[in-house]
From TrEMBL:
<comment type="similarity">
    <text>Belongs to the FAD-dependent glycerol-3-phosphate dehydrogenase family.</text>
</comment>
<dbReference type="Pfam" id="PF01266">
    <property type="entry name" value="DAO"/>
</dbReference>
<keyword id="KW-0319">Glycerol metabolism</keyword>
<keyword id="KW-0175">Coiled coil</keyword>
<feature type="domain" description="Alpha-glycerophosphate oxidase C-terminal">
    <location>
        <begin position="467"/>
        <end position="587"/>
    </location>
</feature>
<dbReference type="Pfam" id="PF16901">
    <property type="entry name" value="DAO_C"/>
</dbReference>
<dbReference type="GO" id="GO:0006071">
    <property type="term" value="P:glycerol metabolic process"/>
</dbReference>
<dbReference type="InterPro" id="IPR038299">
    <property type="entry name" value="DAO_C_sf"/>
</dbReference>
<dbReference type="GO" id="GO:0004368">
    <property type="term" value="F:glycerol-3-phosphate dehydrogenase (quinone) activity"/>
</dbReference>
<feature type="coiled-coil region">
    <location>
        <begin position="383"/>
        <end position="410"/>
    </location>
</feature>
<dbReference type="InterPro" id="IPR036188">
    <property type="entry name" value="FAD/NAD-bd_sf"/>
</dbReference>
<dbReference type="InterPro" id="IPR006076">
    <property type="entry name" value="FAD-dep_OxRdtase"/>
</dbReference>
<keyword id="KW-0274">FAD</keyword>
<dbReference type="InterPro" id="IPR000447">
    <property type="entry name" value="G3P_DH_FAD-dep"/>
</dbReference>
<dbReference type="InterPro" id="IPR031656">
    <property type="entry name" value="DAO_C"/>
</dbReference>
<dbReference type="GO" id="GO:0046168">
    <property type="term" value="P:glycerol-3-phosphate catabolic process"/>
</dbReference>
<feature type="domain" description="FAD dependent oxidoreductase">
    <location>
        <begin position="23"/>
        <end position="355"/>
    </location>
</feature>
């Protein structure tokens, strides 16, 4: 089978990056850079993308793994944020239908000081949310639960002060898969993508304008120059650091990263039937997610300012203590301890300081008076009962928005909480935002890129509708995803795979499952047929260069199937060593790196303290 996006492709792409001048070079291969690359490459803009780690190696593989609608921002009446987010979420579900999946969220309501919602206000918020998100499917329209119904659904939830709950539509996500599927489509479109290439210095032409980047291949340690008409910095938490690679940079630092932490336990230790979302109960203004994933449950997040090593955030004892305290308060019978944690991850969120470091896409956190909120509830209820007009509702809304007097979002943002800027010598930086907004942020940057290429270089590119630009593996009917995934799985069954394994691969890879099932392979020593097919595809079609790339970012195996990982380590290492021509020294180095990443995820150091 021909290898279309592999270590060999990477070597070819590096040779091209050394010799072929680009229209656009993107620094950073997380979701933002990948989202730009898929659009510019489709337009015929000659695009290169470099990432110093693996694709999605930073923030974009470490989110809460939801395409989240932000319902709690209706409490502060940030309707615009919620409206933008749910509209964009619907777009992502259209262009990557095999990745975000509907998963109604349970919001238990407690009568306690500082509670985000009351039973009364949550129904109004959910109704408004459904209108904004255009939720009409009877399976997903919101509804209220009594205290008894909540307890029946989640018997372990703390009944003290529980008054009921609400259920509304949200989506689970596979963040790292979303990145690689964008990268692969950009590659199919002619983009030149290479991982493990680090930008060292920004280069200037005789006119003082940026015209390239001096980079280092982190596999060979070779250094070389890449030349491009425009350079876009999409390096997330690193974006200030990339700006500093420009000797002429005068831009003030704008990032204020915060650290989030998630912990994974077996589902029999914390059984939840659906994603659940509640106030921490610590009166700290934060909320916590508890999400089922296969036969695991994970929960998070903490949100603390971070000044450490950006490429290596870690889970510390204080993070674990905080989360376990919250979970054991909300699920008192669970009595989770450090030893129950099977896996974990720490992430940096690339927040922009000027946005008040709001934990969501926009503006300063703001509060409504109880009276204002009550007037909103009253008018919405009257409207629903046909006793008030739409105009009445709009008047109350306008009054509230004035009353909040929110600090307006940075005028250069292309989505809430993002920032798109250009320095005097031409470095474009797209920073901030959230994974849900990636396509919209990218479209804003692409419009500017197109404009600059026309004005400065007299290059004309026709615009595209990125809302219809599907990612690799996403050629499914968004309205028929379960049915089409089931049909794909049957191709695998016909090839001799067990039903469960075939379904797993179809769910993970979407329409690319057809390519996987058509690989004529026999099981490698120590691996099942499904594992062999998945690994071969990762090596030949997903530029996997290490066992960590494969186990952590391409398959999530390290996070959500920890119990079967130890048996797979040696056979996968052996197979990769053969495929990538590693000598024994390199094989040992890769084995040590994998063991180190597993030990961090396992929290081995904390467990043996």
């Amino acid at each position: 089978m021909t290898m279309t996006f592999s270590a060999t492709t990477r070597a070819q792409n590096i040779a091209r990056l050394k010799t072929e001048p680009l229209d656009l070079l993107i620094i950073g291969g997380g979701i933002t850079g990948a989202g730009v690359a898929i659009q510019t490459s489709k337009m015929g803009i000659k695009t290169g993308l470099i990432e110093m780690q693996d694709f999605a190696g930073g923030t974009s593989s470490r989110s809460t793994k939801l395409v989240h609608g932000g319902i709690r921002y209706l409490k502060t009446f940030d309707v615009e944020v919620v409206s933008d987010t749910v509209k964009e979420r619907a777009v992502v579900q259209q262009i990557a239908p095999h990745i975000p999946r509907p998963a109604p969220m349970l919001l238990p309501i407690y009568d306690e000081p500082g509670a985000t919602f009351t039973r009364f206000s949550v129904k109004v918020a959910m109704d408004l949310y459904d209108k904004l998100a255009n939720v009409t499917d009877p399976r997903y329209v919101n509804y209220l639960l009594s205290k008894e119904e909540v307890r029946k659904r989640e018997p372990l939830l703390n009944p003290e002060n529980l008054v009921g709950g609400g259920v509304y539509l949200d989506f689970v996500n596979n963040d790292a898969r979303l990145v690689i599927e964008n990268i692969k489509r950009a590659h199919e479109n002619g983009g030149i993508m290479a991982s493990r290439i680090q930008a060292l210095q920004l280069l200037h032409g005789e006119n003082g304008r940026l015209n390239g980047v001096h980079v280092k291949d982190r596999l060979s340690s070779a250094e070389f120059d890449i030349h491009a008409k425009l350079i876009l910095n999409t390096s997330g938490p690193w974006s200030d650091l990339v700006r500093q690679l420009d000797p002429k940079n005068t831009a003030k630092p704008q990032m204020r990263p915060t650290k989030g932490v998630h912990l994974v336990v077996p589902s029999d230790r914390l059984p939840v039937p659906q994603p659940t979302y509640f106030d921490t109960g610590m009166h700290d203004g934060r909320m916590t997610f508890v999400v089922p994933r296969g036969d695991k449950t994970y929960f998070g997040t903490t949100d603390t300012d971070y000044q450490g090593d950006f490429s290596h955030p870690t889970v510390e004892q204080a993070d674990v203590d905080y989360l376990l305290k919250i979970i054991n308060h909300h699920y008192p019978q669970a009595q989770l301890t450090l030893n129950d944690i099977e896996a974990s991850w720490a992430s940096l969120r690339p927040l922009i300081a000027a946005n008040g470091s709001s934990d969501y896409n926009g503006g300063q956190p703001s509060k409504l008076s109880d009276q204002s909120f009550k007037s909103l509830i009253d008018v919405v209820q009257r409207y629903e009962n046909q006793q008030a007009s739409r105009n009445d509702v709009e008047q109350v809304v306008n009054h509230l928005e004035k009353a909040l007097n929110e600090t307006s979002t940075n005028p250069s943002s292309v989505s809430r909480g993002s920032d798109l800027s250009v320095t005097s010598d031409g470095l474009l930086t797209l920073a901030g935002g959230k994974i849900t907004d990636y396509r919209k942020m990218a479209a804003g940057a692409v419009a500017l890129i197109r404009d600059l290429l026309a004005k400065q270089f007299n290059l004309q590119f026709a615009p595209i509708n990125s809302k219809q630009l599907t990612v690799s593996g996403g050629d499914l009917d968004p309205a028929q995803v379960p049915e089409e995934i089931a049909a794909l799985a049957q191709i695998g069954v016909a090839k001799g795979l067990p039903q469960k394994e075939a379904e797993k691969l179809a769910n993970l890879y979407g329409t690319n499952a057809k390519i996987i099932f058509n690989q004529n392979l026999v099981p490698l020593p120590g691996l099942s047929l499904a594992e062999t097919l998945s690994l071969h595809y990762a090596l030949t079609e997903e530029m996997v260069l290490s066992p960590v790339d494969y186990f952590l970012r391409r398959t999530n195996h390290l996070l959500f199937q920890r119990e079967s990982l130890d048996a797979l380590k040696a056979p996968v290492l052996t197979a990769m060593a053969a495929a990538l021509n590693w000598d024994e020294t390199e094989k040992q180095r890769q084995a040590q790196q994998l063991d180190q990443v597993i030990a961090e995820s396992d929290l081995t150091a904390l467990k043996h303290n």
